Predict the structure.
Amino acid sequence: MTWAWFDESLGEGYRLGLEIVETIYEEVSEHQRLSIHQSTHFGRVLALDGIVQTTEGDEFIYHEMLAHLPLLAHGEAREVCIIGGGDGGMLREVLKHPVARATMVEIDPHVVELCRTHMPSLSDGAFDDPRADLIIGDGARYVAETDRRFDLLIIDSTDPVGPGEVLFSAAFYRDCRRCLAPGGILVTQNGVPMLQPAELTTSYRRLSAIFADVTCYLAPVPTYFGGFMAFGWASDDPTKRHVGEDRVAERFAAANLATRYYRPALHNAAFALPGYVADLLN
Ligand code: SAM
């Protein structure tokens, strides 16, 4: 039986095809086009404006690397802020740590509702955790106006198109720095360097003008087509990026985390950049 195909074309000259059994839901919200599909290989797939955001099949890689790596690097984060993250996967992973509060600022309530209903495994009850604080609003406006301070800011955004574009601006990054407590860390979703090289270079240059220690780290997320996915790293405390593997392993054991991708041995190795990525940071 031939099923239909969901084709994502984020750039010119290449596309990602996912075989789908059915489209579970589709709507156009105030901010973007939302759709959820049942794929034959990756489980349910969330797409926004036709771009794959997350799939049940490989979301663990992205959410574990963007949550546990900075949390274990920091070591004593109490206040965490997630910008975006509407599917709830990042909130789920952050709340596995003994944080005091996880604030999540998501611009589109439809994404939260849609994923809670049709992809509940992503949030897995995280929105009901008393430490979860969901704010519906523009993340750029939030960091410009809040008087809260955070030990970790996770920018779990869409790509720099549509509502997500502002989350890659220098002004946004400056406001993020303002919201970080001493020793705080900012990490970002920064695209696939092989296919979106300019996105990484631009973010790196903007962050380097604002923070003392800026780089990126990598993990392969199959449905973010094109090889390694880059995660931006910025902090004014360089020691946060230089935690020995033994210390990371101690923290990982103490947190009693069940992970399917992140491992302490991967922590520092993720910052070892292949030449073509390192060249984008020069
Ligand atoms: N893991 C995905 C990826 O790497 O592509 C991103 C996950 S999540 C679905 C991205 C979220 O960012 C969406 O729910 C979208 O509504 C939200 N978003 C986009 N622009 C935003 C903004 N300016 N403020 C807050 N949330 C925003």
Remarks:
- The chain has two domains: 4-55, 59-280.
- The domain at 59-280 is CATH 3.40.50.150 (Rossmann fold).
